[in-house]
Amino acid sequence: MTATTLKVDLALVHYPVNNKNRETIISAVTNLDLHDMARAGRTFGVDNLFIVTPNSEQHKLVGEILDHWSTGHGGKVNPDRKEALSIISIKDDLAGVYEAATKKWGERPKVLATGARFQGEGVQSYELVREQIFAGQPVLILFGTAWGLAPEVMEMVDGFLPPISGQMEYNHLSVRSAASIILDRLLGKR
Amino acid sequence: MTATTLKVDLALVHYPVNNKNRETIISAVTNLDLHDMARAGRTFGVDNLFIVTPNSEQHKLVGEILDHWSTGHGGKVNPDRKEALSIISIKDDLAGVYEAATKKWGERPKVLATGARFQGEGVQSYELVREQIFAGQPVLILFGTAWGLAPEVMEMVDGFLPPISGQMEYNHLSVRSAASIILDRLLGKR
Fold first, then answer.
1. Torsion of CA B76, B29, B88, B109, to 10 degrees
2. pTM over 0.80
3. How many CB atoms lie within 10 A of CB A54?
C-alpha cells in the first residue's frame, strides 16, 4: 500500500476545550501550532489538518496566515512551508469536520481523541490503529488545545489513543510535541 | 532500571549551524524551542537541555525567560512549566557542553548528531541507542536550528541518528517535532 492511500486527518480543536479550572472555553489559535502540525502532518502523509474554532476573528487570522504562505511572500521564499500549510482547512465546529471527512472518504472516519489521561475502556493501541490505517481505514485524530478536549467531545468519538509518556510521572507535552509523536507512532517509516 | 538512572542530555545548537545557502551562521534563539523541548525533555527523563550560543545578548534573553519561570510570575501560575524549564543550561559552545556532561557523568557521553539527511556509515539505529541508554550509557544528542548542524560539528560526534520520516518524500519537521519524536523513540514508555 502506498502513501497516497493513507486516509488520515487531524483536527486541532479550539472549542470545546477545557481551561485550567476544567471550564469549557474557546482557546486562541497559536501560529506555531499551525506551522508545526502542518509540517509534521505533511511529512507523515496526513491529508487535512482541520483548525476548529467558531470565532470569526480567529478564522480571519488563520486565513491571513495561510494567505501569506499560499499566495504571499512566505510561499515564495519557503515553498516547503507553503506545501505544508496547504493541508490546513478551517472549520467552525467538529460537526463540520466530520461532514467534510465523511464526504471526502465516502464513509465516516474512525474518530479518535487524544489526551494525557486516558486509560481503560475505549483506549486503542497505536499498533492496532496503525494496522487499520495501512489497511485503508479512514481515521480522524482530535487534538485539544489549552487544558485538553472538553468532556462533551468524548461522547462523539469511537475511541481514545493512549497518553504519550516516558518513564517519569511528569507528563506535560505541548500539543505540537504530542501530535508529532502520535504521527510517528501511527505513520512513521520503520 | 529506573528513570533516575537515565543519562541523557540534549543540546540545541545555534552555532555552528547552516543557513539556507549552506553558510555557517549563528541562529537566533526561539522562545518556543526552549518551552517545547524542555517539556518533552522533562517528560522523557532528560537530565539537561543545553542551549548553545556564543552570543551574549542571546544568553541574556534566555536568562530572562528562565528567570520569569524560575523565580518570576510564570513559575507561580504554572509550576509544571517551571519544572520543565529547570533542565535548561546555557553554554557558549559545544566544547562547554561536552565538558559539563563529562564532568557530570564521570565519563564522556556518546555524542549523536541528528539531521534530516543522514545515511550510511556512522548511523546508529534507535533500537540500539535505546538499549545502550537503558544499560546506563551516557548519551548527548545534538539538534541543529536553522538549516541544521554545520559540517564541522559532524567531525566531533560518535555517530548519527537516522532521519525521521513518514512514507512521503516530503520531510521538513520543526526541530521541536523532531526532538519530541526522537525522545519518544529512545525513551518512550512501551
1. 170
2. yes
3. 14
For A41, A44, A152, B165, the CA distances from A9, given in Å and listed in that order, are 9, 11, 21, 18
Pairwise CB contact (< 8 Å): B43 & A170 = yes
Confidence of residue A1 (pLDDT cuts 50, 70, 90): very low
Chain B partners of A170 at a C-beta cutoff of 8 Å? Answer: 42-43, 80, 83-84
- Among the residue ranges A21-25, A136-140, A180-184, B77-81, the one predicted with the least confidence is B77-81
Q: C-alpha angle A177/A50/B188, rounded to 5°?
A: 20
Q: Is the peptide bond prior to A54 cis by the omega test (within 30 degrees of 0)? A: no
When scoring A165, A176, A187, A190 by the number of chain B Cβ atoms within 10 A, the one with the most, hence best to mutate, is A176
Report whether pLDDT(A72) > 90.
Answer: no
Query: At residue A86, what is the residue type?
Result: S
Rounded to 5 degrees, φ, ψ at B182 are -65, -40
Task: Check residue A147 and give its pLDDT.
Answer: 93
CA nearest A27: which of A12, A11, A49, A10?
A: A12
pLDDT, tens digit, 9 for 90 and up, residues A4-41: 589 999 999 999 999 999 999 999 999 999 999 999 99
On whether any CB of chain A is under 8 Å from the CB of B125, the answer is no
Tell me how far apart the alpha carbons of residues B19 and B27 are, in angstroms, rounded to a whole number.
8
In the chain, the amino acid numbered A18 is: N
State the smallest CA–CA distance between residue B80 and chain A in angstroms. Answer: 7
For B48, the grid coordinates are: 539537561
Q: How much is the ipTM here?
A: 0.94
Q: What is the amino acid identity at position B118?
A: F
Output DSSP code: residue A164.
P
Q: Output the CA–CA distances (angstroms, integers) from residue A73 to A39, A59, A81, B146, in the order listed.
A: 18, 20, 11, 19
DSSP bridge partners of B24 = B18
C-alpha dist (Å) from residue B110 to A103, B50, B116, B183: 51, 15, 20, 16
What's the rounded Cα separation, in Å, for the pair A114 and A143? 6
B171 touches chain A (CB under 8 A): yes
Query: Is the CB of A87 inside 8 Å of chain B's CB atoms?
Result: no
List, for residues A74-91, the tens digit of each pLDDT value: 888 888 999 999 999 999
Over the stretch A111-157, which tens digit does the pLDDT of each residue have? 999 998 877 889 999 999 999 999 999 999 999 999 999 999 998 89
